[in-house]
Please model this.
Amino acid sequence: MSEESEQAASEPSVVDGVDLADLVERARSEDVSLTGPGGLLSHITKTVLESALTAELDDHLGYEKGDPAGRGAANQRNGRSQKTVHTDVGSVRIDIPRDRNGSFDPQIVPKHARRIEGFDESVISLYAKGLTTGEIQKHLSEIYDVDVSRELISKITDKVVAEMNEWQVRPLDRVYPVVLIDAIFVKIRDRQVANRPIYVAVGVTLAGQREVLGLWAGTGGEGAKHWAGVLTELRNRGVEDVMIVCCDGPKGLPEAINATWPLADIQQCVVHLIRSSLKYSSRKYWSQITTEPKTIYTAPTVEAAQAAFDEFATTWEDRYPAMVATWRNSWEQFIPFLKFPAPIRKLVYTTNAIESLNSRFRHAARRRGHFPNEQAALKVLYLVIRNPIKNRPNITGKVAGWKDILNTLAMFYGDRITEN
Model:
């Protein structure tokens, strides 16, 4: 057996537990590209490409290497030739299998093709999942035998900065029935490493689609003054009216919201109130404390809610005065919830939609320890939005049961909904 044949025989037909021959067959039957964004082979690498080419030659010849059915066949394998293909992260030298008749015309890497697209998106996807440039470099080297510098990986991910900047200033809808706002804290180095807030706003459109309206890096604590600037920017980008703003923000935030959208109802997140209650109480009472407020937030009227809260306060104020004070201090922001019909209550009961996004932000930020600057932080968080996690709900998906909610909003807010 020749040296080339021995090398070919030792090369894998399975990569990362995936049968390449099966991938080729699926791609052909489903008319799906093997390369490029969204393709079956999202990580274009030396190992994957060579294994895929081997599988394609098997299909062309009609038998696999070593199969007795190939003995005496008119067309046989005839070693390999080398070819350099250029990817977005540099050149990769690959071995392309040949047949004796010269009739093999590979489709994965066409005969005269010198560039394979899709590597950039693979690197960006890994970056969005929280891997650092060093970890991506190691991953590509160990798994795919592709050597890429950390500087080049940074350049690839920096390509999204211009895209992010355009996204951040894009025009928005004139009306949003609901806007949810919150902040997440990440570590950013500015001379020294410090916790910095990243402000997040998610809107629900009149079509029931969730949309991340923007990301903003702040300084120091989560302040109403900075929120005022964020809300003003949203208005300047076209948001003229919001029916409900759901939040759990600092003192002064309601005034900032009403200064921006005077007709907006401001809703304190109910789940945040309950979580705050747990912060001031012993774990052994948590079950009781999370259950009892249900009579408050399911009350049919403000008066009934007040009576339920008075009973709750009587039970707990002596033991946990700070917990009861949290409810009292948030009461004016909580009671708008009670005037809403059931479909709207369900929509604004919690800011869980934005908290789900924040949990993905934290996952992406956790492995880095800290970001070198705020642009690096915003870039990673933007990529989390841009690259949804597979098999997890998309934050920008449609609200379930939206038609029922929209009809209720139209009855409740009248022309502010129906004329738009």
In short: The radius of gyration is 29 Å. Residues 11 and 150 are 28 Å apart (CA to CA). The chain has a mean pLDDT of 78.
